[in-house]
Design a protein that fits this description.
Elements lengths: L3 E17 L2 E12 L5 E7 L14 E6 L5 E6 L2 H46 L4 H21 L3 H27 L8 H9 L6 H34 L5 H30 L1 H9 L4 H6 L1 H34 L1 H19 L1
Length: 348
């Protein structure tokens, strides 16, 4: 990669318009101070063809890069400070509202990033199958993050098992329908660039499947833990409730959970693909032709295989939790007694 430098705009030397081939272009002549240096440089910034003019202001921090003529040009803004500010607000609110459990959830988040960037991605770059590397990473991420966020409890054991089952089913479905729809994984520019940079040594189709699995982990965490916890609460509230009734009542909540989670998943994918959706809407292509495009078919397979995992996670978790808490009366009594002790201590 070409070297880059950060700089701050210290002076707008000149600003105006120039005429070129009967076209008028805006320009700015800027003085910039290089970061960690006393050196100042001057750059002329021109309006790019077919673009909206976006002039720079004093004090803005930008990224510089040298072109083929070894001249410095502005390529981007410096965004790290604003991103760190937003991250600080997020961390503060999580800890302030979630307290100890909020802190543990942040540890869980950090662990997930560590496993993805410290294990899964390096294994893939070293020649491992993306699917195998992701499955191995998931086997570590799921139990570690679940227990960090929710504690070592029966409900968490059940959530871990049901998540792994739902994840396996979704992965198998995604694999089958990636083959049926002949997806190559090269529908995005990033995949093409990555293939060139790695000299076509990576399994791009495997990366697509790995991405589907990783994106599902967080969603399955939510629905599995919630369902398991709700079954436990129902059993504690009514220790005499039978398995069938317990499963039936818990699944009513599970159905609402499924509806909201599926809607959330669809909206997330739609929001991330708005420019693409608008492009198709303004074209004259037939809807069936649009669906048949690989870039669209890839998102459909990703969304539907993930949604199926979410749909199945609710009954799987509810069944396992209902069976466990119905057949382990001693566990239920201990949990109920512990809850009563906590309530007594709270009021005293």
């Amino acid at each position: 990669m070409q070297s880059t430098k950060e700089a701050t705009i210290t002076r707008i030397v000149e600003q105006g318009e120039i005429s070129e081939n009967e076209n008028i272009h805006e320009f700015q002549k800027l003085e910039l101070s290089l970061k960690n240096s006393k050196e100042f440089i001057e750059i002329t910034h021109y309006q790019a063809p077919f673009s909206i003019w976006n002039p720079y202001s004093l004090g803005e921090k930008v990224v510089l890069q040298q072109n083929n003529q070894q001249e410095w040009i502005i390529t981007d803004y410096v965004r790290q400070p604003a991103l760190f500010q937003l991250g600080t607000i997020f961390v503060f609110l999580v800890i302030a509202i979630g307290k100890w459990w909020g802190f543990r959830s942040l540890l869980s988040l950090a662990t997930s990033f560590f496993i993805i960037f410290g294990m899964i991605l390096p294994l893939i770059l070293n020649g491992w199958s993306p699917l195998l590397a992701t499955l191995l990473g998931s086997l570590i991420i799921v139990p570690v993050t679940f227990y960090l966020s929710h504690g070592i409890k029966p409900k968490t054991h059940i959530a871990v098992i049901s998540t792994l089952i739902a994840l396996t089913i979704s992965g198998l479905l995604a694999t089958i329908f990636m083959d049926k729809t002949k997806l190559t994984g090269f529908s995005s520019e990033e995949a093409g660039f990555l293939s060139v940079m790695t000299e076509n040594k990576l399994d791009i189709r495997g990366l697509l499947l790995a991405g589907i699995i990783i994106s599902l982990l967080g969603t399955l965490d939510d629905i599995a833990v919630s369902q398991s916890s709700f079954v436990q609460q129902l059993k504690e509230a009514n220790p005499k409730i039978k398995f069938k009734e317990l499963f039936k009542r818990a699944m009513k909540v599970g159905q609402d959970h499924i509806s909201s989670m599926i809607n959330t998943l669809i909206l997330v994918y739609a929001g991330a693909s708005l420019p693409l959706l608008l492009l198709f809407l303004t074209s004259e292509a037939n809807p069936m032709q649009i669906i048949n495009l690989e870039i669209v078919a890839e998102e459909i397979v990703r969304t539907l295989s993930g949604s199926i995992g979410i749909v199945l996670a609710a009954p799987i978790t509810t069944f396992l939790a209902a069976a466990f808490f119905t057949n382990h009366k001693n566990t239920t009594k201990k949990l109920a007694n512990k809850k009563k002790e906590e309530e007594v201590n709270y009021f005293h």
